[in-house]
Amino acid sequence: MTETLLSVEDIHVGYGPIEAVRGVSLTVRRGEIVTVIGANGAGKTSTLMCISGMLRSSQGRIRFDGEDITDLPAHALVGRGLAQVPEGRRIFPRLTVLENLELGAYLRRDKPGIRADFDKVFHLFPILRERQSQAGGTLSGGEQQMLAIGRALMSRPKLLLMDEPSMGVAPILTARIFERIRELNKEGMTILLVEQNAHLALQTAQRGYVIEIGQIVLEDDASRLLANPRVREAYLGDE
Fold it and tell me: At what angle do helices 141-153 and 97-104 cross, to 10 degrees?
């Protein structure tokens, strides 16, 4: 059995009196893509932000790479190998493409490795090499998403958390980005993918979870979720 890299057990996340995540549990095994799908407001992003240390769970545990990280802040998790590509990209618009990527490697001191990872990012997304001196804010939505992914990769993560990578991105660039996500996974990258485009997410992932009103209501292999009548009706637009 493949080793479990991330284990989330019964987490609860609230915003004042509103509980956005109500007892979510999930696992991600090393080397796989796992997706969490659901409607807007279902708790997908809150779950991801809790895993990455941006939000606190009022109960439950989170274990990553054999360590309990439940109470660790976000900045302490990057050095342990957990990086997030946030919803809305959140690049630094006034910094150049190269400077944004350099910030992704701010904890690292291995200069040869950093240079190799620059080359890897530029291989994945050649447009970033062409525009490395350009301000990030002048890029298109899809190019900014590529930059956000590249920035996360520069920390050399063991687990890549991706929040809505297709949001605000033209279809042709969305297809290219998801091709690169699959390529990264084939090279061994473990990915937890939150995505509203359920069809694309389930085509990309090996396993999936369906979240509704802050709770996991289904989990299965992605191919079986794609064929599940309930999923097809609710998230794939089938009658």
Answer: 30
* pLDDT in 10s for each residue of the chain, 239 residues: 579 999 999 999 999 888 999 999 999 999 999 999 999 889 999 999 999 999 999 999 999 999 999 999 998 999 999 999 988 788 989 999 999 999 999 888 899 999 999 999 999 999 999 999 999 999 999 999 999 999 999 999 999 999 999 988 889 999 999 999 999 999 999 999 999 899 999 999 999 999 999 999 999 999 999 999 999 998 887 54
Architecture of domain 4-91+157-235: 3-Layer(aba) Sandwich (3.40)
Question: 142, 173 in Cβ contact below 8 A?
Answer: yes
